Structures are given as C-alpha cells and as structure tokens.
Amino acid sequence: VKENGGGEVHHVVWDEGLSQRARRHLSALGFDGIVRYHVGEAVHALREAEGPFDILFIDIDKQQYPDSIPVAKDKLRPGGILIIDNMLWHGAIFDESDQSPATQGVRQATRLLTSDPAWTSTLVPIRDGLIVALRNG
C-alpha cells in the first residue's frame, strides 16, 4: 500500500492502549496517513467501515467468527481475499467433547465458508491454521 501509492489499512482492536502502541510502531515505520485506527468490537467496526476491501485478516474472539463471515462477504470486493487465523484452534476442533463457545465459533465459521458457493477456501495448516478464502465474483 505504501509503495504502490494507493489504498489504506484499517487496524481494529478492542483496547485503546494496544491501538496507541500500534500507532507508535507503525508511525516509526513511516505508515502515517496510510493506517486508519479503530478501537472497538471488530465485527461492528467492519460493518461500519466503508468498503469494498481487497483483503481482510480476521483474528478476533473465536465465538464471533461466524458473525464476521457475512459481513466480510458484504465488504470484500469480488476476487478479494479473506484470511482467518486460528482455524485449527490448538486441535480443539477435532475434539467432539469440546463444545466451548470459542470452539463452536471456529467450527461454525468453517462450515459457513465451505458450504457457501460465494467462497473458494482452503485451510493452510501452519501453526494454528489459517483459512484463506477467495470471494468469488
């Protein structure tokens, strides 16, 4: 974004202190004027943000993952990329006895992405897993 002369990055975090820390670090790297900072609940912030976006990276409370999918679908341009972190959830998604809200959120988000023809998705099994999904045209 900085090098190609266009676009912006939206940074959303729930804590003002974390936002200020990110602002200091990114400013020191020369990203002033490129990054827009938002403090608040991530799905709400995404819903309110003006799109369309080329790429979304989501790493939020896992029980909110299912709520983020339709918003991401609405905000991504056709051909845009959605990346969601922690999709293996430390292996908990494979433990049928784990019915915690976080684990259920990861499972439901996976079902939403893989059952909707608007998405072409794959699981990248690095560290705790990423889903990378293409928003079909």
Structure description:
It is a single chain. The model has no long low-confidence stretch (mean pLDDT 92). The strands form two sheets. The protein has a four-stranded mixed β-sheet with strand order 3-4-6-5, with helices on one face. The protein has 137 residues and is of the alpha/beta class. The chain starts with 8 loop residues before the first strand and ends with a strand. The protein has two domains: 40 residues, no CATH class; 84 residues, Vaccinia Virus protein VP39 (Rossmann fold, 3-Layer(aba) Sandwich). The chain is globular.
- How are strands sequenced across the largest beta sheet? 3-4-6-5
Integer average pLDDT: 92
CATH structural architecture of the largest domain: 3-Layer(aba) Sandwich
| Strand residue content | 25-35%
CATH homologous superfamily (4th level) name of the largest domain: Vaccinia Virus protein VP39
Q: How far apart lie the N and C ends?
A: 23 Å
Would you state the CATH class of the largest domain?
Answer: Alpha Beta
The tally of beta strands, per DSSP, is 6
Q: What is the number of independent domains? A: 2
Q: Which regions are unreliable across 5 or more consecutive residues at pLDDT < 50?
A: none
Instruction: Kindly name the structural category.
Output: alpha/beta
Rg over C-alpha atoms, rounded to the nearest angstrom:
16 Å
Fold-level CATH name of the largest domain: Rossmann fold
Quickly count the helices.
4
- As a percent range, the share of helical residues equals 25-40%
From the spread of the alpha carbons, the general shape counts as globular
- Major sheet: size, sense and barrel closure? 4 strands, mixed
* Element-by-element helix/strand order: EHEHEHEHEE
